[in-house]
Amino acid sequence: MGLFGIFGSKEKKEVLEEGLQKTKESFFKKVARAVVGKDKVDDEVLDNLEEALVTSDVGVETTLDIIKRIEERVAERKYVSTDELNKTIKGVIGELLSENNSGKVLSFEDELPAKPYVIMVVGVNGVGKTTTIGKMAYQFKQAGKKVYLGAADTFRAAAIEQLQVWGERTGCPVIKQNMGADPASVAFDTLSSAKANDADVVIIDTAGRLHNKVALMNELTKIKKVMQKVVPDAPHDVMLVLDGSTGQNAFEQATQFTKATQVTSLAVTKLDGTAKGGVVLGISAQFKVPVRYIGLGEGIDHLQVFNKEAFVESLFG
Fold first, then answer.
1. pTM score, two decimals?
2. Is residue 149 helix, strand or coil?
């Protein structure tokens, strides 16, 4: 597994631990308060722990699941030290993440299951969607893959321009049309060009509007159908980008988008600037969608493939 084991490298370990520092400090202060002065896990400890988890943006549904699992684990032995309780919480959280992030972690270096491998990225404006696309493109390119970007968010000139900047920065072609053009037409052109030029990865940006769920659903469905005229099984991944610093608002966005389209993975951004990293656990558990990437800083290489073991180790280490 190598010197740094589950972390992959010293640099990745440092970025992950630094990025989760605020969450870790906040979470453990709350857990410590939940068990202070106690030498056994009783109803009061569990109530305090429940409050600590909810206020760490883990979410009510996931918190209740965690508390239930902890109760089951300590039922036979009421006297549990604070250290033992932390180990129990760590075990339960690791268990939950394993259930909802099962299967092989698809890294940027891995051989992709399709060519071109098509990722359709969805999410509201302002969550770091286009930046995440740019960072993904950079890392795929660094891994030796040929990447094409599609500017299908045609409702904002700024979105097209921003993607163009990322294309220039990463050396990846950006297929675009004028503002107001049909997003499905842009997606069609992107896949056609990518296929003709033997691209490995295609990443399609889409509009981040939520004011009309029906319109959003229709638009995303149309984009999918048009892409399938070029690549029959596209998109291979529908990735929802969420801003981790928004806490409970991220839950609402996940609710809306999972109703509008079949989301197959998550990217959670801006975890480095917030104490609300618990949202990663809550959203993954509640929506049964695996977290694929987490954003841990402004650096172009600060988007990491989500490794559940390394995440839990950094949170509790």
1. 0.89
2. strand
